[in-house]
């Protein structure tokens, strides 16, 4: 159960982050909607529970912004029980020799250091919770990488390592830390990935999609609701002894 707990979701302005935020709200949780864009207000309107939602502008590349957002959440709801680190970027789609230092640094800053920043700010509050949890959104792209996505693959494998280290740090306080590794999730983001890969390969986006689907055990894109449901489960009272894990929701796209 997650009813009456407080959850801080980064990247909650669209896509998977919005889906996760709505899923927690549907289960009766208080939800802080954190992102850089005003899409968080749209997510709040979609949830339509003003007393249990807080749209808070947050930039995960800026620790002051993160700390202020966490403090505002704690002040509004009286504590913090769960952190969902969902904010992330795709990074460049290019052979490694065509990538730049700036692209590498940006991808790692958002996808890995951003998680560390938010977790640092949330840590004292999570340790005080009776049901503390951290859920990091990684990717099967960190386990079974695709060509032309080196910064992304490195960052998402980094999320798995960070998850395991944090699980060891938080364990004595009863805070669980897990990663979810989605496969190709239905939505605009994966369609953009298909298009960029297609451009590099000189084929159509449909060809790229077909190749990826053929590599899965279930030849279908992952419904975002299934990833959101896993996040809710990992934060619930039913998962208090699940920690340090990287769990695939991937249509069979990775097996470890």
Describe this protein's structure:
- With 256 residues, the chain is α/β, with parallel strands linked by helices.
- The protein has a single domain, classed as Rossmann fold (3-Layer(aba) Sandwich), CATH 3.40.50.
- Helices cover 47% and strands 14% of the residues.
- It contains eight helices and seven strands.
- The protein has helices at residues 15-26, 39-47, 63-77, 101-128, 150-170, 188-201, 205-214, 224-235, and strands at 6-10, 30-35, 53-57, 82-85, 133-137, 176-182, 246-249.
- Strands 3-2-1-4-5-6-7 form a seven-stranded parallel sheet, sandwiched between helices.
- Strand 4, helix 4 (101-128) and strand 5 (133-137) form a beta-alpha-beta unit.
- Helix 3 (63-77) packs parallel to helix 4 (101-128) and helix 6 (188-201) packs across helix 7 (205-214).
- The radius of gyration is 18 Å and the shape is globular.
- The two termini are 28 Å apart.
- The mean pLDDT is 94.
